[in-house]
Amino acid sequence: MVDQAAWHTTHHLEIPVNITLLNLPPVSPELNPVERIWEKLREDSLANRCFKNFNDAVNDE
């Protein structure tokens, strides 16, 4: 599955015969799994915060 970014729709892209690209609609955040992560981060206390390292972010209460 690919979005409709220029590098996914260019005719210069060589796609192997055993791969089929499925284009997402132009506006479809609900179909993009990473959008769910951003939504959760915005809702949580992790939004707009800085942590010293990964463990501080994971262990944050």
TrEMBL record:
Q: Under what name is this protein listed?
A: Transposase
Q: What domain of life does the UniProt record list for this protein's source?
A: Bacteria
Limits of the Tc1-like transposase DDE domain: 2-55
